[in-house]
Design a protein that fits this description.
Blueprint: H1 3-33, H2 39-47, H3 54-62, H4 72-106
Helix pairs in contact: 1-2, 1-4, 2-3
Length: about 110
């Protein structure tokens, strides 16, 4: 494995971890604005699940009973977190595409 493949793997993993963190913080701010008890626990619960999103789906279904009372400061925080999540997705995509290209260019010519 060459050095640039390791860098691309690191970039993709960095994007995945930061995306998970941004989803955690988004869920925490939303749960706090809706008055749910234990918003950090809801943030952790949103990251759990078999496919990585089962807890988030359950949170989104369960939060409908509670009206949102977002302040302007919380809206700004949410918009900032959404932008950071988009950057994290770009890191994942860049790392994955770079890995695919590097794998196909390193294959022998007979394939």
């Amino acid at each position: 494995m060459t050095w640039y493949m390791l860098v691309l793997i690191f970039i993709a993993l960095l994007g995945a971890f930061t995306l998970a963190y941004q989803i955690f913080k988004l869920t925490e701010v939303d749960a706090r604005s809706r008055g749910l008890k234990h918003p950090k626990l809801w943030g952790l619960f949103s990251l759990s699940g078999n496919n990585g999103s089962g807890g988030l789906i359950l949170y989104l279904i369960g939060r409908r009973k509670y009206p949102s009372t977002l302040t302007d400061e919380e809206r700004g925080i949410i918009n900032t977190r959404k932008k950071r999540a988009c950057v994290s997705l770009c890191f994942i995509v860049f790392g994955a595409i770079g890995l695919i290209i590097s794998i196909f260019t390193s294959l022998p010519q007979g394939f």
